[in-house]
Amino acid sequence: MLKLCGIAASNYYNKVKLQLIEKAVAFEEELVSPSQDDGVLARTPMGKVPFVEVNGHTLAESQVISEYIEEVYPARPLLPQDPLARAKVRELIEFIELHLELVARRLYGEAFFGGAASDRTKEAVGQELDKGVRAFMRLAKFAPFVAGPEFTLADCAAIAHLPVVTLAAKRIYGRELFADHPQVGAYLKEMSERPAARRVAEDRTAQQKLLAERGGRRPG
Fold first, then answer.
1. How far is 87 from 85, CA to CA, in rounded Å?
2. d(Cα 26, Cα 1) in Å, to the nearest integer?
3. What is the 3-class SS of 55-85, one letter each residue?
């Protein structure tokens, strides 16, 4: 059985988990925190999560994992059959992760972990995020799903990443990142009510409480 390794606080972990649940793939979970310890590096070369274990092998990087899952578990496909439509789904994922999530990640230290970002960083990130939002909105369909009429891997990415990005931006800039695009909020609200999304959110909350109890810290 496929084993998903990582932490539920990771939006990339949750992207893969959403996919597995939506496709009704049986899987196990193992709590593994990002680390540069030799034991973790032996399983995931950069020490990042998520990674999966299957048949004695490990596989890292969330999009690589997602593509592998689609190939090995073809039932309930989350990529369209048409090559161009498949590419458009991958394009949306790339834009969400490269031009929104990875940009906003530079704010996470201050937004979520008590760190501090310089004014210069905040200004640069704000400008890049605004460009990313404009680009994303040129591609997104919301018809009713982010890539069109069918639920796809792009929805897994959007559900996992966009709430984190928008919350970070709100905490740093005091504004809604998608204020001019109310369809995004409506979409995320609707997606949050899907059984898979509810399970992922509940598991995330439960794991945060568990880790806080173990470490004597309040969950964040």
1. 5
2. 7
3. CCEEEECHHHHHHHHHHHCCCCCCCCCCHHH
Please provide residue 19's backbone torsions phi and psi, each rounded to the nearest 5 degrees. -60, -50
- CA dist 4 and 150 (Å) reads 25
* Residues 65-91 pLDDT 10s: 999 999 999 999 999 999 999 999 999
Is residue 101 classed as helix, strand or coil in its secondary structure?
Answer: helix
pTM of the model: 0.94
One domain for residues 153 and 110: yes
pLDDT digits (tens, 9 = 90+) for 11-26: 999 999 999 999 999 9
H or E segment to which residue 51 belongs: strand 51-54
Same domain, yes or no, for 112 and 152?
yes
Torsions phi, psi for 31 (to 5 deg): -75, 110
Q: Angle, to 10 degrees, between the axis of helix 119-139 and the axis of helix 83-96?
A: 160
DSSP state letters, 163-217? HHHHHHHHHHHSS-TTTT-HHHHHHHHHHHTSHHHHHHHHHHHHHHHHHHHHHT-
Domain limits for position 130:
83-195
